[in-house]
Design goal:
By secondary structure, the chain is an alpha+beta fold. It is built from 3 helices and 7 strands. A 4-stranded antiparallel beta sheet has the order 1-2-3-4. It has a 3-stranded antiparallel beta sheet with strand order 5-6-7, with no helix packed on it. The longest helix is centred in the middle third of the chain and has 57 residues, at 71-127.
Length: 220
């Protein structure tokens, strides 16, 4: 049996927002993990490093290399050390907080640019999938043929997940099978008789080894 359907620019627009949201969520998770590692490094090493540099610079200014240490210089070094530690305890949290705020402010413009770049890349990729398709069913699986030539095959036993969204049935294979690809089959078609398409789609669903998932928050 063969089904005919078309992936249209309207389908692309429907899928683009959800795909963009998934990509940005994944990027946000990666950024959060990176920021957590950076903050951990700052809390563990940055504060002691800045304290040691400031304290060392102050002591070197008092006790110049090659000059003898007088009692006055030793007292000045001790007082400087105590003052430096007290001032650091009082203001270090504020200093590190300002540094983190500065880092966050620098990230905001980059997030907007990243979103534009990701959106452009996703749109270009999804637009390549537009066009007419033939879905051929047999006992072992189905073959999806694009009108521009590409042909892809998926066996029924290779189906790892089936999701139902308002516009598509999304069927996916596990990563070892067909490189973990996902196929989007429209729930409605203008390329053939609607009743015949619904009947063929029901046959396709009956051959899938699982019932379609319907997430609470439907993604397109």
């Amino acid at each position: 049996m063969e089904l005919l359907f078309t992936i249209t620019p309207a389908h692309t627009d429907c899928r683009l927002q959800a795909a963009l949201q998934r990509e940005m969520q994944q990027h946000a998770q990666q950024q959060a993990a990176l920021q957590a590692r950076i903050l951990g490094w700052q809390e563990r090493w940055l504060a002691p490093l800045v304290l040691c540099l400031g304290l060392g610079g102050g002591l070197l200014a008092i006790a110049r290399p090659g000059q003898p240490l007088s009692p006055e210089k030793i007292i000045a070094m001790l007082v400087s050390t105590v003052l430096c530690i007290l001032l650091w305890k009082r203001y270090s949290a504020r200093l590190l907080g300002a540094l983190r705020q500065h880092q966050a402010m620098r990230q905001a413009p980059l997030q907007g640019l990243l979103r534009k770049l990701v959106r452009a890349g996703l749109r270009a990729r999804l637009r390549r999938m537009e066009g007419g398709y033939r879905l051929q069913l047999d006992d072992q699986g189905f073959t999806l043929i694009h009108d521009r030539g590409p042909r892809e095959r998926l066996e029924w036993a290779q189906i790892a997940r089936l999701q139902a969204t308002p516009d598509f049935y999304k069927v996916a294979s596990p990563p070892p099978a067909a490189e973990g690809k996902a196929y989007h089959i429209p729930r409605h078609s203008d390329a053939m008789d609607p009743a015949a398409y619904r009947q063929g789609l029901a046959l396709w669903l009956s051959k899938c080894p699982m019932e379609p998932e319907t997430p609470a928050a439907l993604e397109r």
